[in-house]
Amino acid sequence: MRHEQLDEIRTTTLSKVICRNTGLTSIPSKAFRINGNPTLSCSGVSDIDYNKWKCGWSIWESWTQCVNFLRFRLRTCRRHKPCAANICTGNAFQVEACGFLTRANIPRIRFNIRSFELLLSQQQNINGTVNLSDAQNALRNLATH
């Protein structure tokens, strides 16, 4: 079981289980404590986030800052038992141009995008993920060449 799955399970309390599975509208926040126990409204009880158990690509992370007219974002291939081995297809990254674009710098930017995509493809590991700091370093190195 992965860390994020365990964290999600740890947010579950007996009071939340009772709220989700009965017709109660409120319950003591600590189900077995009688005195000095605030009431929990069952309408505000969140359900377990089952996305933590889904296989496949995560949602895209935020775009990075613009460096040398490029920015990128990453996603992670979530593979855990019983996921199929080839659950994620495509790249773990997206690259796009950013900043003040002029007709003069567009060919250079296109070249940089292709170069950066190639670098990220080479860094993409067997699990279909790219390390964020490695990708940022690759972009900085590209900017100095």
From TrEMBL:
InterPro entries: Haem_peroxidase_animal, Haem_peroxidase_sf, Haem_peroxidase_sf_animal. SUPFAM superfamilies: Heme-dependent peroxidases (SSF48113). One of its GO terms (biological process) is response to oxidative stress. It comes from the Eukaryota. Gene3D superfamilies: Haem peroxidase domain superfamily, animal type. One of its GO terms (molecular function) is heme binding. This is Uncharacterized protein. It comes from Potamilus streckersoni.
